[in-house]
Automatic annotation (TrEMBL):
Its cofactor is pyridoxal 5'-phosphate. It comes from Idiomarina abyssalis. Its EC number is 2.5.1.47. Belongs to the cysteine synthase/cystathionine beta-synthase family. Pathway: Amino-acid biosynthesis; L-cysteine biosynthesis; L-cysteine from L-serine: step 2/2. This is Cysteine synthase B. GO terms for molecular function: cysteine synthase activity. It catalyses: O-acetyl-L-serine + hydrogen sulfide = L-cysteine + acetate. Transmembrane segments: none annotated. GO terms for biological process: cysteine biosynthetic process from serine. InterPro entries: Cys_Synth/Cystath_Beta-Synth, P-phosphate_BS, TrpB-like_PALP, TrpB-like_PALP_sf. The keyword Hydrolase does not apply. Pfam families: PALP (PF00291). Residues 10-300 form the Tryptophan synthase beta chain-like PALP domain.
Length: 321
């Protein structure tokens, strides 16, 4: 067994497991366990790539402070990388995100600023606008996963090829969500280059603007949803939404209950966004008339949501039980 030189080397090469106790119709459904990254989510991959590219391009130098706008997981990935490389880290996140993520970030030495979840892009208290402004005023390096091509590169170079190899080149569909769009764009491009017939399926929380765009080319006003890390009120610069050939709008109830069922039936403790992804993947599988091989992601660990989706009182308070 491999012994690593440091924790950053342990990012990626995550295992895949077959879903065996849920209704996958005529299909085989596989979960790629991104929760097994050292920082507990898929975002470790982009944290490494974005920091290393910024260093190579001379945009990030020893002594600089890093700032990022995040639902939390990119922050946790950056906290690993920043600690390893000695950069101070500031995180701006919307206040709907779980307290576990905030505590975890603070324990790792990051300074966390929480801002409003009920405002949209362009508002001074929107998390991305706030991070950009703090960077401008204080000379921090703003990573900006929503506009940073290194985010897409990380998935094109690692997540995509790993999936293709693990499936032995036999893959019919990949299901993912969009937060920054890095996963969809990077994995999607790689997979389509291997097999142009691969279905790329978007799992979107009901209330997000993306599903109506993909399915009906319809522009809607953003609503609100409880999933952390997926669903958007704008299309991020790096996101190539046209890659998705179909989309499913998943309600909070279906998404959160699916996350709980995956733990109960499959023994994998996934976070909230993964519940929506797996719900969409199951629906896609159940609609098929031919057997297909489908992959989706366990994006992050459910440990970060013990006070929310795995807490009956919280579930009840949100009318999700
Ligand atoms: N799931 C979780 C838990 C996330 O934190 C994120 C990133 N915000 C995503 C899914 C979406 O991935 P991407 O940013 O690559 O679209």
């Amino acid at each position: 067994m491999k012994v690593f030189n440091n924790v950053i080397e342990m990012v990626g090469n995550t295992p895949m497991v077959k879903v065996t106790n849920m209704d996958t119709g005529p299909c085989e459904l596989y979960l790629k366990l991104e929760l097994q990254n050292p920082g507990g989510s898929i975002k470790d991959r982009i944290a490494v790539e974005m920091v290393e590219q910024a260093e190579k391009q001379g945009k990030l130098k020893p002594g600089d402070t890093i700032i990022e706008a995040t639902a939390g997981n990119t922050g946790l990935g950056l906290a690993l990388v920043a600690a390893g490389k000695g950069y101070p880290l500031k995180i701006v996140m919307p206040d709907k995100m779980s307290q576990e993520k905030v505590n975890n970030l603070r324990a790792m030495g990051a300074e966390v600023v929480q801002t409003r979840s009920d405002v949209q892009k362009g508002h001074p208290e929107y998390y991305q606008d706030m991070a950009a402004r703090m960077a401008e005023e204080n000379g921090y390096y703003y990573v900006n996963q929503f506009e940073n091509p290194a985010n897409v590169d990380a998935h094109y170079k690692t997540t995509g090829p790993e999936i293709w190899k693990q499936m032995n080149g036999k893959l019919d569909a990949f299901v993912c969500g969009v937060g920054s769009g890095g996963t969809l764009t990077g994995v999607g491009r790689y997979l389509r280059e291997q097999n142009s017939g691969v279905d790329l399926v978007l799992a979107d929380p009901a209330g997000s603007i993306l599903e109506p765009l993909v399915n009906r080319n319809e522009e809607v006003e953003a609503g609100s949803w409880l999933a952390e890390g997926i669903g958007e009120d704008f299309i991020p610069t790096i996101c190539d939404l046209k890659l998705a050939n179909t989309a499913f709008a998943i309600s909070d109830k279906e998404g959160m209950q699916t996350a709980r069922k995956v733990l109960e039936k499959e023994g994998v403790m996934v976070g909230s966004s993964s519940g929506y992804l797996i719900a969409a993947a199951l629906r896609y599988c159940q609609q098929q008339t031919e057997p297909k091989r489908v992959v989706t992601l366990a994006c992050d660990t459910g440990n970060r949501y013990l006070s929310k989706l795995f807490n009956d009182d919280w579930m009840r308070s949100q009318n999700l039980l």
